[in-house]
Amino acid sequence: MEIIIVDNGGQYVHRIWRSLREIGVKGKIVSNTIPPEKAITSDVIGIILSGGPDIKKSGYSEDYLEYCIEHNLPILGICLGHQIIGRYFGAEVGKGSKGEYGSTLIKILEKKYLFEGFPDKISAWASHMDEVKDVPKEFLLTATSDVCLVEGMRHKRLPIFGIQFHPEVSHTPDGKKILRNFYEICRFKLFL
Amino acid sequence: MNVRVIVDEIIKFIKEEVGSNLAISALSGGVDSTTATVLARKALGEKVIPVFVDTGLLPYGEIGHIKKLSRDLNIPVKIINASNEFFRALKGVTDPELKRKIIGETFIRVFERIAEDHGAKCLIQGTIAPDWIESKGGIKSHHNVGGLPKEIKLKIVEPLKNFYKDEVREIARYIGIPEYVINKKPIPGPALAVRILGEVTPEKIEIVRKATKIVEEEMMKTGLDFWQAFAVLLPIRTVGVRGDIRAYEWTIAVRIVNSTDGMTANFSKVPWEVLERISSRITSEVPHIGRVLYDITNKPPATIEFE
Q1: Does B164 touch chain A (CB under 8 A)?
Q2: Are A169 and B164 within 8 A, CB to CB?
């Protein structure tokens, strides 16, 4: 059983791998230049789209998303990965009114799935200029902050999740819990 | 993390990579390179020659530290003084990336010479994950990765490249490396050269050395937990007054951060009294410094070091 981390060139790609290792989950980093049908084996239980510097350099990320939709495979987008999901489902992605770097206070709106067992607010680390501007039609807003509206969202029917902040860095104390929750969604097919 | 299994895997990896060759091991005395060196010695015994390069860019006490470490670990270390070579290469250089690349290249040329003298074919480095992540992402060229020249006569072996510093510390503890090495604060490969914004000269290095010693001493006295605490010389002169006389002197920025793995960091909320002591000591003990600033930026958006 493994989770594929699609590498969009972000600083924390390997840190996702490490966080998965810490919770006892095997991760495999795959460059976004490799198409999903070449990377996804029967061992793969979920996909994480990583962050990265530029949505134009997101390679096959959307193909991974389509693959997941088609096969009902859970997918989690982080930062740029979250924006890729937002854009695919018709949201506007663009520069926020201000950038969000370092510590930020996240309000959890839905304490289920990724945020199962979470308090009302968590402190998290973010590092982004662009953001998802509106919640796509088929999605629910699951987390928000004063700086950025869509800090978290999920598809209403499918196991598709996006978060703008970084659960994989040590400065997001509850981050590992998010990854563990994602792993449980993957492993026990909790969704639906 | 199952340390025992990981240590076995790393030793196996080093044996496979180096094979029957001789290797030199780049040893700075920090926890990463010491761990890599000790593991390499476990794997290959005396076929590994640890080399410490004195770049002339180091803080106070590093050579004493390496000698003590060599005695305590019972590992002979070749100490090479290459400071003239480094200062010559850095003359007139102000661009941070160029600085890092020149330092990376100078290191390699020194290692190549020593390797040739000993007939060694491999270079063992204590590269860890953030080094190559930041180099690859174009954030900054770490001297041991993105700062390397294109043509290298040595095969580079990096047994710790998938680990972070907190994990390396766990491995180090397991293989019996002394606590004073494990808890040693990280010093970047280019050392004080990236803590002088602008051209690097021996005089400026001396200023940063003095200021850094004060920052460290005062922080150690507090018993507070921190990842790094150091001084940076800014190329800014400001007006002051000393004993009724106008002064026009340089500026030191103090950087103290907390972090677990260096990938994200927050500036330390050090008590005012400590900052005050640091400031008054720097302005009275370090020549040419008239102003001290405290850096209150996290990583991101800043990095821990200034360059």
Answers
A1: yes
A2: no
pLDDT under 50: residue ranges of chain A: none
Residue B298, token pair as written in the block: 């996290």
Chain A residues closer than 8 Å to B129 by CB:
14-15, 18
Residue-wise pLDDT for B139-188, tens only, equals: 888 888 877 888 899 999 999 999 999 999 999 999 999 999 999 999 99
A79 is known as an active-site residue: yes
Tell me the whole-structure pTM to 2 decimals: 0.88
Spell out a b/e string for B151-169, using b for 16 or more CB atoms within 10 Å of the CB, else e: eeebebbbbbbbbbbebbb
Tokens coding A71 = 């096969």
CA distance B301 to chain A (A): 6
B54, B192 contact by CB (below 8 A): no
Closest approach of A158 to chain B, Cα-based (Å): 32
- Find chain A residues with C-beta within 8 A of B167's C-beta: 18
| Coil vs helix vs strand at A22 | helix
How far apart (Å, rounded) are the C-alpha atoms in residues B65 and B73? 12
In degrees and rounded to multiples of 5, residue A56 shows phi and psi of -70, -15
Q: Is A166 a catalytic residue?
A: yes
- Cβ–Cβ of B266/A171 closer than 8 Å? yes
Contact A12 B263 (CB under 8 A): yes
Q: How far is B305 from chain A (nearest CA, A)?
A: 16
Q: Is B177 in contact with B10 (CB distance < 8 Å)?
A: no
Q: B54-86: per-residue pLDDT in tens? A: 999 999 999 999 999 999 999 999 999 999 999
Give the list of residues 6+ apart from residue A131 with CB closer than 8 angstroms, or none. Answer: A83, A93, A94, A95, A96, A100, A148, A149, A150, A164
Clarify whether A110 is annotated catalytic.
no
Q: Which residue is listed with tokens 């000993």? A: B118
Residues A47 and A73 sit within 8 Å (Cβ to Cβ)? yes
Q: Give the separation between CA A88 and CA B150, rounded to whole angstroms.
A: 40
The residue of chain B with its CA nearest to that of A173 is: B260
ipTM over 0.85: no
Contacts of A22 in chain B (CB under 8 A): 1
Q: Which chain A residue shows the shortest CA-CA distance from B163?
A: A18
User: Which residue is it, tokens 């996804």?
Assistant: A40
Instruction: Please state the φ and ψ torsions of residue A8, each to the nearest 5 degrees.
Output: -100, 15
Residue of B nearest to A24 (CA): B1
Whether residue B39 contacts residue B159, with contact meaning beta carbons closer than 8 Å, is answered with yes
pLDDT score for B139: 84
Q: What is the pLDDT of residue A191?
A: 66
